[in-house]
Amino acid sequence: MKTLNTYENKKVLVLGLGKSGYAASKLMKSLGADVTVNDRNDLSTDEHAKELRRDGVQIVGGGHPLELLEDVSLLIKNPGIPYTNPMVKKALEQEIPVVTEVEIAGLLSDAPMIGITGSNGKTTTTMLIGEMMKHSSFEPIVAGNIGTALTAIVQKATVRNAIVAELSSFQLMGTRSFHPHVAVVLNIFDHHLDYHGTVENYASAKARITANQTKDDYLVYNADSTRVVSYIAERSQAKKVPFSLNKKETSGAYVSGGFIFFKENRIMPVGEMGIPGEHNLINALAAVAAAGVCGVSPKDMANVLQSFKGARHRLEYVDIVQGRTIYNDSKATNIIATTKALHAFPNKEIVLLAGGLDRGNSFDALIPELKKAPIKAVLLFGETKKKLLDACRKATVPVIKEVENVEAAVPEAFALSQPGDVILLSPACASWDQYKSFEQRGDIFIAEVNKFR
């Protein structure tokens, strides 16, 4: 880890004691900063808070007293905390730098970084690149939005490592000098507009991944996305490495004659990929392009793409149970993600499990996709089940049933399906109305499925 004396004996405020806040606090304290952690929740019994107190970190929970900003040199905020938060607004008014832990990690890392962002597909692409990089001259460490906080990783990463980091728009918006050697941008859809306000603001946050890149760095980008091209690629100073499903991008990754290529090198037949769906083919092309510029061989790329079975809860293949093929796509918390899942099985009949938190949106955009997909039945649960019921009726889905939750949906799915069908959990909604997380929702789905073995 590089040395950073900028904040030695300076006051640093960490806003939000989540995974990233805990790691950032530990790191800044080790750098000699006077660290205070502030969280809206009561932290009196929190184990991480107790540990930080023992390390000499001041802990303030139960609200956001603005006087904590006095003489503060840096505010490190949890990525999910909006910029409308009174503490953040006041810090910006006082011209206190407001960053996320990604910025600190970037300043300190000895290891080169591959950063991956996009509205959909980040986790799968990050995991694919991580697997492919095991066959490079680097020892990869997968981190960021996918799991371990970057400020925890940089303390042990060396020049022998490569950090493969999934990065959200929330994380990237809080960066200033962040500089990955390879930046990967998958797509830009109308996501998180409640946080960013406009698509332009959202795209601007995503563009931070390449803002400080130079001609010695690489931008791997989706040449089929007009938003990625216009908002990001055209403005980047890095070497551009495109990937495309529709064009023969000979300076990057593409599909030709049913084969995946990187530049002039044929990697493998599309049909031999271990994960289904056109969206996963796009993720594979992005991974091939990123791994390719890092020196991974076509053979090693092919081996990974053939053996990789998907990220947990992202169109995750579970098993064949009583002849039904089971997929857990609990991470599909929006219409676009569910649409991609529905079209991943063109030759199978699908029993779909959907529903969840009501965020006030309609599901009209899902109607034509429900019509096109080979759906046998839909099981609906959660706050949105009435809205989804209306969409399914308009799409003339043959069988529609309302159930209480995922637990109740699984036995109905087996009753309405037959061997050869796909049972697919792809909710198109967040989970928080009934479950703590999409992970918990997916785990419960798998546990219920296992009862039918």
How would you describe what is shown here?
The chain is globular and about 65 Å long. The N and C termini lie far apart (49 Å). α5 packs parallel to α11 and α16 crosses α17 (438-450). The protein has 453 residues and is of the alpha/beta class. The chain has 17 helices and 20 strands. A 9-stranded mixed beta sheet has the order 7-8-6-9-10-11-12-13-14. It has a 6-stranded mixed beta sheet with strand order 15-16-20-17-18-19, sandwiched between helices. Cell wall formation. Catalyzes the addition of glutamate to the nucleotide precursor UDP-N-acetylmuramoyl-L-alanine (UMA). Keywords: ATP-binding, Cell cycle, Cell division, Cell shape, Cell wall biogenesis/degradation, Cytoplasm, Ligase, Nucleotide-binding, Peptidoglycan synthesis.
Write the SSE topology.
Elements (H helix, E strand, L loop, with lengths): L10 E5 L3 H12 L3 E6 L7 H8 L3 E4 L10 E6 L8 H8 L4 E2 L1 H8 L4 E5 L4 H12 L5 E6 L5 H4 L7 E6 L2 H5 L8 E4 L7 H4 L2 H9 L10 E5 L3 H6 L7 E6 L8 E4 L2 E4 L2 E5 L8 H16 L4 H10 L8 E6 L2 E5 L6 H8 L7 E5 L12 H6 L2 E6 L4 H10 L4 E4 L3 H11 L5 E4 L12 H13 L3
Parallel strand pairs: 1-2, 1-4, 2-3, 4-5, 6-8, 6-9, 7-8, 9-10, 10-11, 11-12, 16-20, 17-18, 17-20, 18-19
Antiparallel strand pairs: 12-13, 13-14, 15-16
What share of residues are in beta strands?
15-25%
Question: How is the CATH topology of the largest domain named?
Answer: UDP-N-acetylmuramoyl-L-alanine:D-glutamate ligase
Major β-sheet profile:
9 strands, mixed
Question: What's the CATH C level of the largest domain?
Answer: Alpha Beta
Measured as a percent range, the helix fraction is: 25-40%
Question: Can you count the beta strands?
Answer: 20
- Uncertain runs are none
CATH superfamily of the largest domain: Mur-like, catalytic domain
Q: Based on the structure given, which CATH architecture of the largest domain is correct?
A: 3-Layer(aba) Sandwich
Distance between the termini: 49 Å
Pathway: Cell wall biogenesis; peptidoglycan biosynthesis
Protein name: UDP-N-acetylmuramoylalanine--D-glutamate ligase
Pfam families: Mur_ligase_C, Mur_ligase_M, MurD-like_N
Catalytic activity: UDP-N-acetyl-alpha-D-muramoyl-L-alanine + D-glutamate + ATP = UDP-N-acetyl-alpha-D-muramoyl-L-alanyl-D-glutamate + ADP + phosphate + H(+)
